[in-house]
Amino acid sequence: MTALLELEDVEARYGPVHVLHGISLAVEEGSVVTVLGPNGAGKTTTLRAVSGTVRRSGRIRLGGRPIDRLGPASVAHLGVAHVPEGRGTFSELTVWENLRLGAYSRRGSIQPELERVFSYFPWLSERRRQQAGTLSGGEQQMLALARAFVHRPRLLLLDEPSLGLAPVLVAELFRIVRELNEQEGLTVLVVEQNAHLALQAADAGYVLEAGRVALSGTSDELRADDSVRRSYLGY
Amino acid sequence: MASAATSRLEGLRDRGAALGGVVQPVSLLLVAAAAGLIVGSLRSAIFAQLTVQGLALGAVYGSLALALVLVYRATHVVNFAQGELAMATTYVAYQLIKWGLSYWEAFFATLAIAFVVGAVLEVVLIRPVLHRSVIAAVIVTVGLFILIDGLVNWVWGGDFKFMPSPFGTKIYHVGGVSIARLYPGMFVVVIVSVLLVWALFRFTKLGLGMRAAALRPAESALVGVRVEWMLAIGWGLAAVLGAVAGLVAEPSQFVLQPTLMQPILVYAFAAAVLGGLESPAGAVVGGLAIGISLNLVVQYVPAITTELQTPLAFAVLLVVLLLKPSGLFGHREVRRV
Question: Where are the domains of chain A?
Fold first, then answer.
């Protein structure tokens, strides 16, 4: 297996505030990797460093190609879909326009991609003319995921997909992510508060603390780790 | 799924509220106004002439107002130089015609030049200050107003210039009403340009990218929209609309002079504010409303003479800002968390 995404000694800051103090991690092609950690550990910032929405230094490579000097639009064009926390729904636009934007970096017809996405989210098809802001929170989260899928990304960055969702929907969401991973080999890097769910869905994980990698391993290894159990799994 | 069903209901209710709360009274008002204009025009030839003339002038105000709205939506900057830019591009057309181009060759060449100038201005002058503050960018546009005015006076002088009218001097007689071909000509040129811009925004991928970039720049970049290019293209398109406004305003004033667009800028501001500053359709409707009503008021209200037209537009602007800052078409955002 080769690493699709590699971070080496990545630092990032917001103005004077250092958030990442040299993060190194790797995401294998075709795997689901989760990032755990307490609030403020730098989980979201790690994703933002990859997609180029925060100032960062260090080396970030996508399929061997350095992307640490690229802006977010260029990173998206290389096949990274970032679903930010709070979903990033274009609430003023219609469902269809949101999906069209998801495929913005693709050329040519997006009809096959739409068909594919509608097979995962059939209800989106009926409601393509609806203004996205009038969808419920859960539906907006599904739309955000669908928007990322029409992009047909090499790498999907998911930030707190479970935030504010009913448990049933969270389970559904992770089921779809897992299905896409298994059937289409989609590579996923997911930040998640719910460590239980995240470790269930992921092959491997990293635990961040205060902007550094405190621990890493396969999901089974992390589940077996005492500190992870105490801090994140609660038993 | 129960949640989907309820949310669909709520979605419908939201839309219903939007229709009942905002769109309906405005559309009723517009239908009533249109009916009034038609009845008035049937009863009086002068009224009809003033209405047609007002429609043509209003289309000009509307297209400059639309330019203001495009810039405002893209960068949240009120571009005080929009009118002067339109005036300058009209001088460019004048020069091209003088060098031997036909009117319509010069027309389209000028639009292309306007696009480039608008986009370059955004990149060179607005973008560097925009990340500091919007107000800094607005002040830059005020400076740009003075700069363009000075440049035009320096290059072409302040005296009257004459351009051939693209619409000729033909006069149509319909019933008892005489209408110079100029006015329907102006109206058609402006409305076609506005519709083309609308279609670009509504139906093309580029247009969608521009709308997304204006609404949510950060999220747009994440899906691969080159937000900065979109803003520059938005400024370019605004300059094109302004150029159309200048080019068709010129024959209505019969001469070209550096003050060509100054009163029109006031009318365009009034139109944009009346329409709701964020609403492209509102800008055009606002422009038509201002154009027609000013023309009629000056004729039928003895106390208001031609000199008071511009102050009156300013009064409209003030009243809208005081009573209904969101304007006729200012949209309430429908958003659920």
Answer: 1-79+201-235
* Structural domains counted in chain B: 1
Q: What is the ipTM of this complex?
A: 0.89
CATH number for the region A1-79+201-235 comes to 3.40.50.300
Residue among B55, B74, B63, B91 nearest B265 (CA): B63
pLDDT digits (tens, 9 = 90+) for B209-256: 999 999 999 999 999 999 999 999 999 999 999 999 999 998 888 889
Task: Tell me whether B206 touches chain A (CB under 8 Å).
Answer: no
* Cross-strand partners of B171: B180
Taking the Cβ of residue A166 and every Cβ of chain B, the question of whether any pair is shorter than 8 Å is answered with yes
Q: Can you give the pTM of this predicted structure?
A: 0.86
Residue in B10, B208, B333 closest to A100 by CB: B208
Q: How far apart are CA B231 and CA B79, in angstroms?
A: 13
Check: CB of residue A199 under 8 Å from CB of residue A219.
Answer: yes
Q: Residue B306 is part of a domain; what is its CATH number? A: 1.10.3470
The rounded percent of chain A whose pLDDT value lies above 70 is: 99
First to last CA, chain A: 33
Residue B327 pLDDT exceeds 90: no
Residue B1 confidence class, pLDDT cut points 50, 70, 90: very low
For the stretch A77-124, pLDDT in tens is 999 999 998 778 899 999 999 999 999 988 888 888 889 889 888 888
User: Which residue range(s) make up the domain with B218?
Assistant: 46-323
d(CA A63, CA B251): 61
Interface test with B, best of A90, A109, A145 (most B CBs within 10 A): A90
Residue B173 covered by a domain: yes
User: Mind telling me how many Å the CA of A223 is from chain B's nearest CA?
Assistant: 33
Of A127, A134, A166, Cβ closest to residue B336: A134
